[in-house]
Structure formats: C-alpha cells, structure tokens
Amino acid sequence: MDLNARGFVNYLLLPISWVFYLLSKIRQAFYRIGVFRINQFDVPIVVVGNITVGGSGKTPIVIKLVDYFQQQGKKVGVVSRGYGGSHSGKSLAVKSDTLATVSGDEPLLIASQTGAAVMVNQDRSQAVRDLIKQQQLDVVISDDGLQHYAMGRVVEIAVIDGNRRFGNGFFLPAGPLRESQNRLKSVDFIINNGSAHVGEVFAQLKPITFIHVLSGEEFPLDLFKNRHCHGVAGIGHPDRFFHTLTQLDIQVEKHHFIDHYQYQINDLEFEDDHPIIMTAKDWVKCREFANGKMYYLKVDLDIGEKFLNELTAKL
User: Fold this and answer.
1) H helical segments located in the chain
2) pLDDT tens across 6-20, in order?
3) Helix axes 3-12, 14-33, angle to 10 degrees
4) Measuring CA to CA, which of 156, 186, 292, 312 is 20 to 30 A from 52?
5) Using N-to-C axis directions, what is the helix angle for 58-71 and 105-114, rounded to 10°?
6) 3-203+303-314, which class in CATH?
7) Is this prediction's pTM over 0.90?
8) For 73, phi and psi rounded to 5 degrees?
C-alpha cells in the first residue's frame, strides 16, 4: 500500500480512533477516582513503557536498568505480558532455557542477558505478586505496562522513538497512539531513543560486538566489513537495525519480518553461504535451529549518568 492510500485509509479509521480515545480517557478517570482498584506493592515498581505501538526500544532500556541496579547491589525482578508467547493462565517464571514460543521473545531476552528473575503474566499485577512472593527483591521493572493502571508504580518512564516520535498523531487504529501526548506530562522521565530533544533524556543504542549463535564466541565489529550478508530483523523498527549494519560497511541484503515473528528453520535457508546477521531479539527465537552462518549483533544503551542517578533517588 502506497503512502497516499495508507493516509486515506487512516482518515477513514478516524471515527474508530475517537472511540478508542474516549474509552481510554474514561478508563483513566475510573482509576483516578477509585472506581477501578490500583494494586500497591511493598517493592517499588518502575514502569518502562510508551504511548505508541511498536518499536520504540523499551526492552534495551529495561536491560540497561537491570544491569545498572545489579551493579548497585540490588536484587532486580522484571515482569512482562509475554506478547507473542503461547503461555496463558498462571504466572510463568522465565529462565534462559525457556522457549520463546512459550514466554515471548522479550522476556526471554531479558532473562538470558541479565540473569534477573523474570515473570510473565497477562495480568501484570499478578506477575508482580508472584514475583515478590518467590524472590526477595529491591525493585521490580515492568517491560511495557504504562497503560496497565491496575499495577501501582513508583516511577513511570516513557520511551519515544527519536525519529518516528508520534507518527501521524492519530490514535489507534488510524495511527500509533495508545494515549494522548498530554500523558507525557505526568510521567517521571521521557527517554528519547535516537535523537536529542529538549526536556527528554537522550539515549542511543550502540553496537558492541558480533556473537556467533552456535559457539557464543565474540567477534569485532569489522568482521563483516565490505562483505555481503543477510540481515534478518523481526522487530518493531527493522530499518534501524539495517541502518546500523550499513554504517558498519556491511553489504546488507534485508529480510524484514513482523515484530515478534516466530521463525521456522526454512525462513533462514538462503541459496548461498553468506553470513546471516540478526538482532538479539531474533537470536533467542532462532538458537534452537541455529547453524554456523548465524551471528547476532550485541548492543548497549548509551544513556547519561544524570538520569540513572535521578532514577535511583526517586526509589
């Protein structure tokens, strides 16, 4: 669908967007005046979410915060809805060997890269209760959940894609907004992933190393310089990943998949022997059938100490 046609469809969807907007405002008001219950906890909850759908970079920020708190000697837990996973019902404690098809890719990635206690439940409040019942924790981080008002929180962090920001400014389904931009006035921090903006905390993902999927061996970033490679991305904003590979002077053949895509082995069977480079989020879904051509790009989040210190102070 070209841009003009997509724009026309979005305008046709505007009446539904207004209904979505009104229902979201009514729901917020019911929590504010006490019609709906807000669950409170003895452990401080930090919510890392956004007001738009898809691909703002929440999970790398969650991983960064887990690492930071762990370095401070704190015991950290993470809760997630487990989007894309088949698990339902009672809470699921995610381990590094849990299947991504069960837990969802993001909870598994967090558990694998941080070693933190991760709990999945569509009811986030229940996930928090089960997590703090099983673990002695100093802080719990919610991966997404800004709109899950039933879960009490001490700190709210909203993440914005620095390039796309709020898209066309329309509410779902005509646009990407889950909530009004005015919602940002009530959060504690706004993290801008990718560009500088007044009043927002600047953060940027930086590539660190390539990791061979089968062996776990690390390689320098110039490993594939001037080489033809397959780039694979099933994330919310795949072009950001492909742009990173291009900046590393890699000749990238791009393979886009939808966010949270559950790969099958034949998805990555190409008619050549070129290396296959994927994101860490794709790695946890492909490692079960990995071959020697597969690598993933490990990244780190560059974010200022000032923000981390202010966040610690709020806890």
Assistant:
1) 3-12, 14-33, 58-71, 100-103, 105-114, 124-134, 238-247, 280-286, 305-314
2) 666 677 888 899 998
3) 50
4) 312
5) 30
6) alpha beta
7) yes
8) 85, 15
